[in-house]
Design a protein that fits this description.
Pfam families: DUF1016_N, YhcG_C. One of its GO terms (molecular function) is nucleic acid binding. InterPro entries: PD-DEXK-like_domain, tRNA_endonuc-like_dom_sf, YhcG_C, YhcG_N. This is DUF1016 domain-containing protein. By secondary structure, the protein is an alpha/beta fold. It folds into two domains: 127 residues, no CATH class; 160 residues, Trna Endonuclease, Chain: A, domain 1 (3-Layer(aba) Sandwich). It contains 15 helices and seven strands. Strands 1, 2, 3, 4, 5, 6 and 7 form a seven-stranded mixed sheet that branches. Strand 6, helix 14 and strand 7 form a beta-alpha-beta unit. The C terminus is likely disordered.
Length: 345
């Protein structure tokens, strides 16, 4: 009973079977969650529409909504139909009933708690669309969404100049998708690093907290290994970190650099991608993608380094700590938060 079952295939084949099985289960769970959220939000939307069309407003309509809450709770005690939540449903409908279909589809599959944050804390519909899409595609929890809003991630996103050659090296639709998947900067503050470290130490800490790193990378990434060994023509090569992205159907190689970007990093990554495509890429998979993570980069330096490269490579910065101003803002916001910020109903 306690004996390990006999496995008659090699470790690499088994690892691939396990990777695909885990990916399938995760996708299924995500789809089920989206269906549940979409159904619940549809009910909330219709209740909000009813209150909106009956022209009920907080004040003279409060008595009606309070009584409605009591009667609905008796009928559906598990639905969270408090007066506050009913007003939020009206606000939900009021906010989005004239919005475009793409935005409606994004908020429809978010958990209700996520939608409450967006309704109460984000003003522009453009910003709502950004946060909703980030939350959906990257599986953000409510806490991560709240921190992203408080850090004004949308404003930072608008300022970003992405450094990559995806449009020149990938087919149009894949290039657009890759552009959405990979960010210009990654926050590695979860590592708790407060002093200078070496690249191998950075890699070691990332591997130790690989779940947090995958969450920061975004949805769809599966970790394959670190110092991934490639052998060709009697020589060995080692990729710092290797992932597979289910949506892109591509291997993703990540190289970690402690200092600023240097042009020679691109040549090394180009070689790794050639070897991955030759030795590891599956028959039906897309070309491997490389990401060079460094502490700092100059967009023009990256642009010239990528000019004649035929493999898809992106260069991104990372932060080991939150910038001082953002950290202060987060602390002040928490101190000054009103009781209503945490109200779920």
């Amino acid at each position: 009973m306690g004996n390990k079952p006999q496995i008659n295939i090699n470790d690499s084949d088994y690892s691939e079977i396990l990777r695909q099985a885990v990916a399938e289960i995760r996708v299924a769970r995500t789809l089920i969650a989206k269906q549940v959220n979409s159904t619940a939000n549809s009910v909330y939307w219709n209740l909000g529409k009813l209150l909106f069309e009956k022209q009920l407003e907080e004040g003279y309509g409060s008595g009606v909504v309070k009584q409605l809450s009591v009667d609905l709770k008796n009928e559906f005690p598990d639905m969270g139909l408090s007066p506050r939540n009913l007003w939020n449903m009206k606000l939900f409908y009021e906010r989005y009933y004239l919005a475009d279909q793409k935005l409606l589809q994004a908020v429809a599959v978010l958990p209700w708690g996520h939608n409450l944050l967006l309704i109460n804390k984000v003003q522009s519909l453009e910003a709502v669309a950004y946060y909703a899409n980030e939350a959906v595609t990257k599986g953000w929890s409510r806490d991560i969404l709240l921190n992203a809003i408080k850090m004004d991630s949308y404003a930072n996103f608008q300022k970003q100049i992405k450094s990559h050659n995806f449009r020149e090296t990938l087919p149009g639709i894949d290039a657009d998708y890759a552009n959405e998947v990979f960010k210009d900067a990654y926050n590695l503050g979860f590592l708790g690093i407060t002093e200078h470290i070496k690249e191998l130490e950075l890699e070691k800490r990332l591997v130790e907290k690989i779940k947090s790193f995958v969450l920061e990378l975004g949805k769809g990434f599966s970790f394959i290994g670190n110092q991934y060994r490639l052998e060709y023509n009697g020589k060995e090569y080692f990729v710092d970190m290797l992932f597979f992205h289910r949506g892109l159907q591509s291997l993703v190689a990540i190289e970690l650099k402690i200092g600023s970007f240097k042009a020679e990093y691109v040549g090394k990554m180009n070689l790794y991608l050639s070897l991955l495509d030759k030795l590891e890429k599956g028959e039906n998979e897309n070309p491997s993608v490389g990401i060079i993570l460094c502490a700092d980069k100059d967009h023009l330096d990256v642009e010239i380094a990528l000019q004649d490269i035929n493999k898809p490579i992106g260069v991104a910065e990372y932060q080991l700590l939150l910038p001082k101003e953002e950290l202060q803002t987060l602390v002040l916001n928490e101190i000054n938060a009103t009781e209503g910020d945490n109200e779920q109903e």
